[in-house]
Amino acid sequence: MTDMLSRWRAGLSRTGKAALGRVASLLGATEITTQTWDDLETLLVQADLGIDTATSVLDSLKRLTRDRGLLRSEELNSALKAELRSRLDNPPALDFSAIPMVILLVGVNGSGKTTSAAKLGARFHAEGKTILFGAADTFRAAAVDQLQVWGDRLNVPVVAGAPESDPGAVAFNAVQSGLSRGVDVILIDTAGRLQTRFNLMEELRKVYRVVGKALAGAPHHIWLVLDATTGQNALEQARKFKEAVNVTGIILAKLDSSARGGMAFAIQHELGIPILFAGLGEKPEDLTPFDPDSFVDGILNS
Ligand SMILES: Nc1nc2c(ncn2[C@@H]2O[C@H](COP(=O)(O)OP(=O)(O)O)[C@@H](O)[C@H]2O)c(=O)[nH]1
Ligand SMILES: [Mg+2]
């Protein structure tokens, strides 16, 4: 746990160094001037909060400065911290009451879906739950192999189809197999980019429907995996996925190699979907529940 926290902070301090970490030096013991606001805005945008969210944060801070009569920019520092913290929801407790619980992982190619499936599998497995992986990214043979390797390593069964086979059929079989084996959690990995005749969002909707046919009420969760290093681009992707399927949570992968963590605020501000987990590396243990307090501390106090 301590180890996880220190790695989390180490990852975040790299994040902060390149952007929000500079806020502390910007907001030294000087007076708040127009220049302070301009510089702060630049930092927030550079940190990937995006224009809309950055503007909204600045408006709140300006109001606060007026109302409380803050004069020194160092006072702004703690106000900024509180403001950023207030913009992140506490991740809701995961409801494991459904057995099996079916989780669909969605996101674009390379965002970290398969790795996140493995990490979640390892995590739930360590909690004493039984797992099954469904390899429904049948458009990339390598994706199936990749999940198979993780399944072997974690001793978790993998249901896969032939290359190019129907992802819906694989998802259906995975749920059926999970039901007959009596597992607690079924993690279904999906494709992020489809070939010419298939539309990604159509295919996802189909997988979603088929999973519901295999088990009423499933999938119980649809988690969108976003690559923290892709910034505002990831936000655009998130909007599209949210339109296509009922995304219930975000996994922010590659936070360890992101230079800017501000996307977390933009995601919350613009999509209202809670961030559940953060990916902090490539190994199965490199996943941690998203902790808004550590996150805000980490990006500001590096
Ligand atoms: N540093 C780092 N790399 C990651 C993380 N999650 C995934 N990756 C790497 O990102 C690449 C793409 O991941 P993958 O799970 O295959 O993405 P997918 O195409 O969405 O299934 C792989 O090289 C992973 O090892 C993370 O949290 N941190
Ligand atoms: Mg994959």
- Which term fits the overall shape? elongated
**The CATH topology of the largest domain, please?**
Rossmann fold
Bound molecule kinds, no repeats: guanosine-5'-diphosphate, magnesium ion
Which stretches are low in confidence, meaning pLDDT under 50 for 5 or more residues running?
none
Q: What proportion of the residues is helical, as a percent range? A: 40-55%
Largest sheet: 8 strands, mixed
| CATH homologous superfamily assignment of the largest domain | P-loop containing nucleotide triphosphate hydrolases
- Give the N-terminus to C-terminus distance in angstroms: 20 Å
What percentage of amino acids are in beta strands? 5-15%
The CATH architecture name of the largest domain reads 3-Layer(aba) Sandwich
The side-by-side strand order for the widest beta sheet comes to 3-2-4-1-5-6-7-8
**Strand runs, count:** 8
Radius of gyration: 21 Å
Overall pLDDT metric: 88
CATH class of the largest domain: Alpha Beta
- Number of DSSP helical runs: 12
Count of discrete structural domains? 2
Derived structural class: alpha/beta
SSE order, as H and E?
A: HHHHHEHEHEHEHEHEHEEH
